[in-house]
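Collaborator request, handled under Task 6.
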Amino acid sequence: QVQLVESGGGLVQAGGSLRLSCAASGRPLTNYAMGWFRQAPGKERLFVAGISRFGRNVYYADSVKGRFTISRDNAKNSVYLQMSSLKPEDTAVYYCAADPNSVSYSYIEYDYWGQGTQVTVSS
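Structure tokens returned to the collaborator:
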């Protein structure tokens, strides 16, 4: 099993930036493709960004392309989400997740999840 812990969320004004971190323990992160998802109150959990095991391939939801950047440091067993030009509609709980296969846009495919970190963007 792998344990995931997110950090870096908070309250930011529209146009601002935040960097989320996801620290993994239990197994080497190279065993997993990683994804970031978000869930707003009353809404489904949506794919935000994904990165392949060694960072060769990255994927983004259309809504965040050009504003968010996913990266990973396997030596530190960590994944990051740099968020810029934040908008109020980015407000949600953000989760990192591990997929033992390849990056998937569906949350169903991910086996392990962190507890989430709240991101609130004020207008």
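The cover message to the collaborator said: "The chain has a mean pLDDT of 97. Residues 21 and 34 are 12 Å apart (CA to CA). Please let us know whether this matches your experimental observations."
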